[in-house]
Amino acid sequence: MPETKVKPKVLVADDERVIADTLAMILNQSGFEARAVYSGETALELASTFEPAMLISDVIMAGVNGIDAAIRMRALLPNIKVLLISGQAATADLLE
């Protein structure tokens, strides 16, 4: 029997649906199990059942932003890797 490889799970959060969906599609085609969500709140809701190894999130989103979602998700999943992305130059100030 061929051995079944476990695909690393990635959660993509971006309020721009095209970006989230496209990134998840690319990751799924590249050997990951990726899911796209469109808010920080939804990312947090899904995290406990999906249990991603990595969160890729836009920084600036309405409601729970990417930074807050990452902090709260890390409390739930201490070993999660986090990649925060933004298309806005002013984002560097938020990270401080």
* Helical coverage, percent range: 40-55%
Residue-averaged pLDDT: 92
Mass-distribution shape: globular
CATH superfamily: Response regulator
Strand order in the largest sheet? 2-1-3-4
CATH structural fold name: Rossmann fold
Q: What would CATH call the architecture?
A: 3-Layer(aba) Sandwich
Low-confidence stretches: none
Give the tally of β-strands: 4
| Quaternary status | single chain
Measured between the Cα atoms of the first and last residue, the distance is 51 Å
Care to give the gist of this entry?
This protein is of the alpha/beta class. It has helices spanning 17-29, 40-50, 66-76, 91-95; strands spanning 9-13, 33-37, 54-58, 81-85. The protein has one domain (9-87): Rossmann fold (3-Layer(aba) Sandwich).
Detailed description of the structure:
With 96 residues, this protein is of the alpha/beta class. The protein has one domain: Rossmann fold. It is built from four helices and four strands; from the N terminus they run βαβαβαβα. The chain has a four-stranded parallel beta sheet with strand order 2-1-3-4, with helices on both faces. Helix 1 links the parallel strand 1 and strand 2. Helix 2 runs parallel beside helix 3. The mean pLDDT is 92.
